[in-house]
Amino acid sequence: MQQSKIIQLGLSYAQSLWAYHVTGTPRPFSASFAVTNKCNLQCSYCNCPNLNTPDLTIDEMRTLFSRLKRMGVIRLGLLGGEPLVRSDIGEIIALARQMGFFVSMNTNLLLYRRYQEQLADVDYFFTSLDGTPAKHLANRGTHSLARITDAIQDIVARGKKVTAICVVTDPDYTGVDYL
Known about the structure:
By secondary structure, the chain is of the alpha/beta class.
């Protein structure tokens, strides 16, 4: 991550705190946006795929992103469902970058290779791993865990950061040790 982006995030956070302490009104520096509720998995604990809400168009997103920018938002998190099921995810990322956002993405990474080049503009990735391979597959259904770890390795090789979000569904401490 570029040092200037880290400094920009820190300054935005400081401005938010300052605004809150001086005026009593917080100024947001970070926002998360669900680009879709659709998903390519059926995780045992998730209800996103059951939410039947329409996806915003790129023009609607442009309006929303502009409002967020005017409010002072610096970091925009793209999430879902699974954001990579949208065929226009590259346009969404490009729009966020054109507006000057630090872009993070929460994704299961199963479709990473399909959008690999468009994802180069994402600053930071979050992905879910649910413990041991057996526990992960039990929670998320059949798919290739190797595809996820391959994507993580590629992202790191490109100099990007990845944080694993771990969903704990039972007191299986061996899963924690494994991760």
